[in-house]
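User: Sequence for RnfABCDGE type electron transport complex subunit D below. Tokens please.
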Amino acid sequence: MENINLKVSPGPYIRKGFGINKIMIDFIIALIPAIFAGIYFYKMDAVIIVLATVLTSIVAEGLWNKFVKKTTFLTDLSPIVLGLILALIMPTYVPLWIPIIGSIFATIVVKQFFGGLGQNFMNPAAATKAFLIASWAGVMAKPATDATSSASGAVEVVVPLIDKIIGQASGSIGETSILALCIGGVYLSLRGRISLRGPIAFILSAMVMHNIFDKDLLLSGAFFVAAIFMTTDYGTTPMTKVGQYIFGIIAGVCASVIAVKGFNPEGPYYAIIIMNLCAPLIDYLTTKKYKVKKEA
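Assistant: Structure tokens for RnfABCDGE type electron transport complex subunit D:
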């Protein structure tokens, strides 16, 4: 009998010709519109944070690879993608050490401690956002410039619809332009890198909840960052088609509830973390079971 050595690895599994680096290059291309939009509105502040998150992610992964005695300094391009996504969720008013610590935490603690790419049970960017807010809430909160601006903060500013879609300087770097985020999502879908089942379910369910809460149906950029780049994460979301719909719907509802009723604009990221913990259960419940007859 011929002995065959099979290499067993955790899912998801990639079809032949869809190498990791090719996929990561497409994700980098998809992130470029949102990054450029953030740089357009926040200028050099955004550039510095993008460079900090990307370079720190690369160095952190390289040092980890050296520590575990891997042959190459940079195994794949995933640290660059992680660094870019981290930059998207960072505000520009934070000190430089915040994105640096965030990149180290995302790369080492959330990603590498659990086996590396595809084996982490939680989205690194969403987990990092929650970690930074929990650890340095005062630093992550937007400071008030003066007493007058603080008092006027209660007045709701009416922003034209076109500005909300194309872009405006509000929120984190990647949350400025909904259009730029959607362009990246469409590109990834056309390239076959992601399915839009999760993102569409996420956005629609969040819009329904916003309507129930009598809020603006046009969601903030944080919802689109979470929908496009977090509900499609290969390792932390369901692999079944039905499971992706379920994941997106429940995550969208949770995101809206946390954002509106919890008065927390970072609700989408917390919702992603909550649903990451439920992803294995969703996969189990939505995977077709086959009965096998036992022979005597």
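Residues 44-67 form the longest helix (24 residues).
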